[in-house]
Amino acid sequence: MPAFKYIARNEDGKRVDGTLESADRRTAMQMLQQKGLMALSLDQTTAKSPANTIKKRFRFESGLRKKNKMGARDMLLFSREMADLLASGMTLGRALHTLAQRKGDDIKAQIIRRLRDEVVQGSSLSDALRIYPDTFPQLYISMVRAGEASGALAEALEGLCHHYERVQEARGKVITAMIYPAIVLTIGMVSVVGLMVFIVPRFAPIFDELGGTLPLPTRILMAFSNALIKYGWLILIATTFGIISLRKWIKTPAGRLWWHTRQLKWPVIRQIITANALAHFARTLETLIRNGVPILKALTIAEETVGNDVIAGEIAEARTRVTDGSSIAGPLAAGKIFPELLTDMLAVGEETGDLPGALKNIARRYDSELDFSIKVLTTVMEPVLILGIAIIIGFVAISMLMAVFNLTSGLGV
Fold it and tell me: Is the pLDDT of residue 223 over 80?
């Protein structure tokens, strides 16, 4: 029998959520009326069968339950569609209802229906978005609230679309730049492991038959090959455990701060991290200030979105130094992270009364620096990785040849 998930109000006006089984939607509505409930939404779901119960229990116990979260692309598509519908003159409730009526029972559809129900019950969109913090970050919520206060929600959503499109573009550049080095490194590691496990051990019986003392490089190579064959599974387990433990520790405040500090000390990587964080900071601040968010609040949100705890801490200290609520160039310049070029451009923007324009130029400037740093990284990494792999494979080949020449010369061949 079909199951229906409902959101309703009782006689006291309190909200009631639940699920009931009914032959059809009309019967489900009648059942709610008999209970004294006024339906706000009624959506059909899959009936609870024993198989589904077992599946859900297994998913819960194994820790594989999906988060109630939209993907970045789905969130961007939702924002774009909402901006277009509102710009066409449609009301907020009707726009959400239009998107909620589309077929599908995935996470995105469930989130949109919940947002619609909250807005229909009298909540603002910004308050409804707080239900899903994993999907809608503080930047998004603050922008929507500013749009609601100014009566320009469509423009605020349009600005968010442009912001997240630029963020995804920057992230895509970094990922694309790392694909080729990752492929080279993976192929190189597989090749070296294959040599150690399958090729080098075949020479051991030959060397034993010939007798004699093997050269030091060959002995080192044979010892490493034997260790990899005997204890490879243990090395793999230890490496996997170490990586998982490191990742978990990096998610802690202390571990994250340590990791972000190290990132700002590595050559080339430092330029990429800094340029990306500063471009993101400028773009976020520009988007918020342009839409009427107060500077102190905008700095707080920008602090949470730069992606590096060291730079975020510097923004937090600068925020405490902002006393007049309008000037930020001086407090940022008092720190050690933000370069003079950025603070000088901010100061000019404050003097001319066009701080959003200055921040836009800053974001463009550091986007260009990010592109250049990525090109430098890929240009440096490719030959370094190829040279490193060539040295390892060359060491294997030379070690084997040294042993062959040494043993055959002792035999007078």
Answer: yes
Q: How far apart are CA 35 and CA 25, in angstroms?
A: 16
Output the pLDDT for position 47: 45
Name the DSSP letter for residue 199: I
With a CB cutoff of 8 Å and minimum separation 6, the contacts of 298 are 142, 284, 285, 288, 289
Dist. CA 11–CA 410, nearest whole Å: 102
Beta strand pairing call for 3-9 and 38-45: antiparallel
167-413: in CATH 3.40.710.10: no
Spatial distance between the Cα atoms of 232 and 390, rounded to a whole number of angstroms:
23
Output the CA angle 251-253-259, nearest 5 degrees: 65
The 10s digit of each residue's pLDDT in 262-316 is 888 888 788 888 888 888 888 888 878 887 778 888 888 788 777 788 888 888 8
Domain residue spans in the chain? Answer: 3-61, 72-136, 167-413
* Contact between residue 115 and residue 70 where contact means Cβ atoms under 8 Å apart: no
Per cent of the chain over pLDDT 70 is: 86
What the block records as the tokens of 100 is 């909620």
CA 291 to chain centre: 25
How far apart, in Å, are the Cα atoms of 310 and each of 89, 265, 273, 314, 328?
44, 12, 11, 6, 18
301 vs 122: CA distance, rounded Å: 26
Radius of gyration of the CA atoms of the chain, in A: 30
Residues 373, 275: contact at Cβ < 8 Å?
yes
Beta bridge partners of 20: 4
**8 Å CB contact between 312 and 299:** no
**CA dihedral sign of residues 184, 188, 189, 191:** positive
Paired residues of 7 in beta bridges: 17, 41
